[in-house]
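User: Here's a structure from my thesis project, written as structure tokens. My advisor, Dr. K., wants to see whether a designed sequence matches the one we expressed. Can you design one independently, without my sequence as a hint?
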């Protein structure tokens, strides 16, 4: 794994492209670790060592958006969650590559969303898409799926690791609820970008129109590059995009 990470990091560095990095489950999963303490035991050690160069060069490293947190010294800052401002847009990454969002990640997100100016649109970057109304994928493809847990873990023997725990953390479900409550047009969250499934998909993040009233500035999000037709929306959507390894991409324009 270290040699693969070095090769990839070198290619990204040579491209001169600015990026924000958040890990996927196959970035840190070490197969054949049946004796590990948990299914995600390798996650933080790998993020803090093998994958650290990506975080050090990420736009989220030392961004001005951290100032709103005050004296924040949590160990997960910068690798399990982070933020940056790009041309007036607040980008937050939350590492849910183990299918869960912990209490620190939830608190970080809440502080960022609640302290942001009403004129600042927010985009959330995740690896695993959230379970939302309209999402029909299996538990292994979604974060916050009601059936996620040991009973639906069909790959633990194939991957040689401990089973998933019994079910979701409450903080995972609260995170999803927070994003829905703060989604445009009632809040500043205009989009969630995710991957993991290797498929293009779009589902609504916003609450039903009859359950909310617009407040603050209105934003329009234009999506191009997915397999869906180009579209423009004023509510918030979750966009899942096919793998870049096969040439897939998505371009969002927010105005």
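Assistant: Designed independently from the structure alone:
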């Amino acid at each position: 794994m270290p040699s693969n990470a070095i090769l990839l990091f070198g290619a990204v560095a040579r491209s001169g492209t600015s990026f924000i990095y958040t890990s996927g489950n196959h970035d840190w999963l070490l197969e054949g670790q049946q004796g590990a303490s948990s299914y995600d035991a390798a996650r933080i050690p790998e993020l803090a060592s093998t994958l650290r160069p990506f975080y050090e060069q990420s736009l989220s490293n030392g961004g001005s958006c951290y100032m709103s947190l005050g004296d924040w010294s949590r160990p997960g800052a910068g690798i399990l969650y982070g933020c940056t401002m790009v041309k007036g847009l607040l980008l937050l990454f939350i590492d849910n590559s183990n299918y869960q969002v912990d209490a620190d990640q939830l608190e970080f997100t809440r502080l960022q969303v609640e302290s942001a100016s009403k004129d600042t649109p927010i985009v959330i970057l995740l690896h695993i898409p959230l379970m939302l109304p309209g999402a029909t994928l299996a538990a292994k493809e979604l974060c916050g799926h009601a059936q996620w847990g040991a009973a639906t873990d069909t790959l633990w023997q194939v991957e040689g690791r401990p089973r998933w725990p019994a079910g979701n953390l409450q903080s995972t479900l609260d995170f999803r609820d927070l994003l829905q409550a703060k989604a445009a047009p009632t809040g500043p969250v205009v989009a969630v970008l995710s991957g993991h499934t290797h498929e293009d998909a779009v589902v609504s993040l916003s609450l039903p129109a009859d359950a909310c009233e617009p407040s603050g500035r209105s934003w329009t999000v234009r999506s191009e590059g997915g397999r869906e037709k180009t579209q423009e929306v004023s509510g918030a959507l979750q966009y899942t995009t096919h793998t870049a390894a096969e040439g897939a991409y998505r371009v969002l324009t927010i105005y």
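When you compare it with your expressed construct, this may help: Residues 93 and 151 are 29 Å apart (CA to CA).
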